[in-house]
Amino acid sequence: MTHPLDDIEDKVLTGERLSFEDGVRLFQQANPLQLSTWASLVRFRLHPERRVTYVVGRVINYTNVCWVQCKFCNFYRLPGQEGGYVLSREAVFEKIRELVNLGGTEVLIQGGLNPALKLEYYENLFRAIKANFAVQIHGLSPVEIIYLAKTSQLSERDCLARLQAAGLDSIPGAGAEILVEAVREQIAPYKNSAAAWLDLMRTAHRLGIGSSVTMMYGSVESIEQRVEHLVRVRALQDETGGFRAFIPWSFQPEGTHLGDVKRASGFDYLRTVAVSRLMLDNVPNIQSSWLTQGPKLGQIALQYGVNDMGSTILEENVVSKESVFMVPLSEIERLITDAGFVPARRNTTYEILPLPSGPATHAAA
Amino acid sequence: MKAIGELLRRSGLEALHAKVREGRRLDFDDGMRLYRTPDLTAVGYLANLARERRSGDRTFFVRNLHINYTNICNKLCKFCSFYTAPNSQDGRGYALTPEEAAARVDRYRDESIREIHMVAGINPKLSYGYYLDLVRAVKAARPEAQVKAFTMIELAQIARVAKRPLADILPELQAAGLAACPGGGAEVFSERVHEELFRAKLDNEGWFDVARTVHRAGIRSNVTMLYGHIETPEEKVRHLLHVRELQDETGGFMCFVPLAFDPANTELSHLPATTGYSNLREIAVGRLLLDNVEHVKAFWIMITPGVAQMALWYGADDLDGTVSHYEITHALGTRSHRQVLTVDQLLELSVEVGRIPVERDALYNVIGESRAATAPSNGPGRATGVRRES
After folding, report:
1. Taking a contact as any Cβ pair under 8 Å apart, which residues of chain A between 234 and 293 contact chain B?
2. pLDDT at residue B326, rounded to an integer
3. Partners of residue B349 in chain A, C-beta under 8 Å
4. Average pLDDT in chain B
5. DSSP character for A321?
6. Yes or no, beta carbons of A339 and B277 under 8 Å apart
7. Alpha helices (runs of H) in A53-141, residue ranges in sequence order
8. pTM value?
9. Is B369 helix (H, G, I), strand (E, B) or coil?
10. Which pairs count as long-range contacts for A185-188, CB under 8 Å and 24+ apart, including other chains?
């Protein structure tokens, strides 16, 4: 019996690249078992060992002051508005100290577009962090760097080079949302364009600064626009090879200006993960977003192409408060083990780290 | 699917695949293999074959409401956070009068209700007459709904306070309005688990004796399995095979309901909560081993709506459909990831994943295809057979 997706299955089996149309058909017609089977096949082709990685890190939201007013954000305060903050050096250090004491290696530094902060602020902060702690700085989304270059009257390349010299190791792929102008105009009209986002990443990758890349689906975009996002990421990756991981996560409508948008379902998450794994044949890692999906779906995603559980995340303020899951390290390891995989710690650049000495971190299964 | 063939080979499930395809019965070792293989997709694929053979792409649901008529219970089960002991001074204990229970039903007078699901603790103060009055009262409050009430544990208690054999009193309960029995209280059929977690409760053989008597009286029931506490895979396989054996004898079970244990606020609160993998696997293994039970339920209140939606491809063909909140789970503490869904939202989840909702009554008689549900012209097709034209 022939099945309407047989041609796609043949491509998956032979490792042939999927087209835009293939991606759309997978979204619209593939059932969960097909998606899981095919995405797992690609996952094990890229990562033959039954290993799932994670990084011990924390998010430091150094400021919540931002003028961009994205409709999906309930974190920001406008410049001058009550409740705005910039963390002191001591407060940042205290957070990193806590992280290092827990064996952590990744500091994810993210904030807003705060007109009061200039390039020197970041250079000094990064240098001080590097001088005091053995951590990797995964920091500043493209939006923040584009803004910083502009306010510092530097080219993006020069701005990135100075940040790199100060200690920036990697750029989180945040703010990609959907890399299609029509969608960005609706959900983040003041944010830079898709082309600007991709250009910044291209420049960073060429300097040797690797990054991740996200996709925020489930707001106002169509299936075709999701696939367009994947195709654009894949094209840049062909050029630079600088994307280390892809992280799809669903728009969290609660408390935002798009509050009447229905929250994306479990199936929508898992099919998006699977189609991402299938389309992005040149991106090595797909990360689970248990932070937004919850530990149950975050774990089931391991069967839909995910090979990395991301960061343990000791702090996160941007996502709606109600949707945040603080899963402890032992819980991440338990989820991995329970799914029949072996947990392994990595650093920001995806090198496997030796198992920590000291008390066992595994919870009783 | 060529890729799934490869996956089944890699998972060592080829022989099992042949058995499932040919509709042959699985044995103890097969059950253990299903629990041990790490590849959940392979297990899900097999379960889905069995699921689609019975139900195609239909998903059953019932508009029901839950009444827990008393939380006073003398069984002191370690996995329960709902009960309060008969002599407890904590002030939490309650027992609804039949009138109060009827008033609860009446709260939902504006909603379409087909089933009243009623279970509770073993409260030694309640008389036989109380149980009859209770059933009569809720039935009178909503004559078009079927009363599905009393676990095997409660039925044993009712016979005890009636001081008559169960077989004698069942016709009286039926005359009062009892239409079916839920499947709770089965827990896991293992002497070890029974001894450790619920020693005061009816033991395994006792549970089966009551179920057999109930089925022989012409009353159909469900059957559950509580997992995610101290049970082993061996004990779960034996539980399922035990159920299958009784089902061969009586044919009285309508639906298998795997219940995910939530340790919060129980004496076992040191245990972790069940995982998404285990939620899907229990549904799949149940579907595969219980070849003589018609339906398998994904109870979304316990496993989250997202996992319940996925379960429709891992062996489940029933989504329940509770319109009122569920007090026993409610007592187990609220978690931030627990979402509240309306029945219509639940049906949308089913349609989105390519499963057509079919409304049923407590006895699985089809009432009709849901109003909310028209299958999308473009959606996931069945894994077996010809998919819809798109």
Report:
1. 265-270, 293
2. 55
3. 265-267
4. 89
5. G
6. yes
7. 89-101, 119-132
8. 0.91
9. strand
10. A186/A219, A186/A220, A187/A70, A187/A71, A187/A72, A187/A219, A187/A220, A187/A258, A188/A68, A188/A70, A188/A71, A188/A72
Give the gap in angstroms from C-alpha A211 to the nearest C-alpha of chain B: 30
Give Cβ neighbours of residue B331 (< 8 Å, ≥ 6 apart). B71, B81, B82, B265
- Give the tokens for residue A164: 């790199």
pLDDT per 10-residue tile (average), chain A, 365 residues: 85 97 97 97 96 92 87 83 92 90 90 91 96 96 93 96 98 92 84 91 98 94 96 98 97 75 91 98 95 92 97 61 54 94 96 70 37
End-to-end CA distance of chain B: 19
Q: Cβ contacts (< 8 Å) between A323 and chain B: which residues? A: 336
> Integer distance in angstroms from the first to the last C-alpha of chain A?
43
Cα angle: B375, vertex B378, B379; to 5 degrees: 70
pLDDT tens-digit series, residues A129-146: 999 999 999 999 998 999
The pLDDT assigned to B382 comes to 57
- Rounded to 5°, angle at Cα A251 from A201 and B318: 135
Across A184-206, b (16+ Cβ under 10 Å) vs e yields beebbeebbebeebbbbbebbbe
Q: Where are the domains of chain B?
A: 36-369
Q: How many CB atoms lie within 10 A of CB B91?
A: 7
Q: How many CB atoms within 10 Å of residue A342?
A: 12
pLDDT in tens, A212-233: 999 999 988 999 999 999 999 9
Helix (H, G, I), strand (E, B) or coil at B141: helix
d(CA A281, CA B217): 61
Structure tokens at B155: 């039925």
Classify B239 as helix, strand or coil: helix
- Domain spans, chain A: 17-342
Q: Name the nearest CA neighbour of B221 among B160, B290, B293.
A: B293
Name the minimum distance, in Å, from the CA of B290 to any CA of chain A: 21
**What CATH homologous superfamily does A17-342 map to?**
Aldolase class I (3.20.20.70)
Q: Which residues contact B266 (CB under 8 A, 6 or more apart)?
A: B78, B79, B80, B81, B332
Sign of CA dihedral B103, B109, B110, B116: positive
Higher pLDDT, B333 or B111: B111
Residues 6+ apart with CB under 8 A from A284: A46, A244, A245, A350
Q: What's the alpha-carbon Rg for chain A, to the nearest Å?
A: 20
Choose the mutation target among B6, B41, B355 for the interface with A, i.e. most A CBs under 10 Å: B41
* B336 in contact with chain A, both atoms CB, cutoff 8 A: yes
* B372 phi/psi in degrees, rounded to 5: -75, -15
Q: What percent of chain B has pLDDT over 90?
A: 70
Inter-chain touch A299–B313, beta carbons under 8 Å: no
Do residues B3 and A41 make contact, with C-beta atoms less than 8 angstroms apart?
A: yes
CA pair distance B17, A235, nearest whole angstrom: 40
CA distance B138 to chain A (A): 36
CATH superfamily, domain at B36-369: Aldolase class I (3.20.20.70)
Helix, strand and coil in chain A, % to nearest 5: 45, 15, 40
Cα–Cα distances in angstroms (integers) from residue A364 to residues B38, B233, B249, B273, in the given order: 18, 16, 40, 12
Q: Taking CB atoms and an 8 Å cutoff, what residues of chain A touch B307? A: 266, 296-297, 300
Contact A36, A300 (CB under 8 A): no
* Non-local CB neighbours of B27 within 8 Å, separated by 6+ positions: none
Q: CA separation (Å) from B120 to A63, B164, B328?
A: 52, 21, 9
Residue whose entry in the numeric block shows the structure tokens 């996952």 = A43
In the Cβ-directed half-sphere of B323, how many Cα atoms lie within 13 Å? 18
Of residues B166 and B346, more confidence is placed in B166
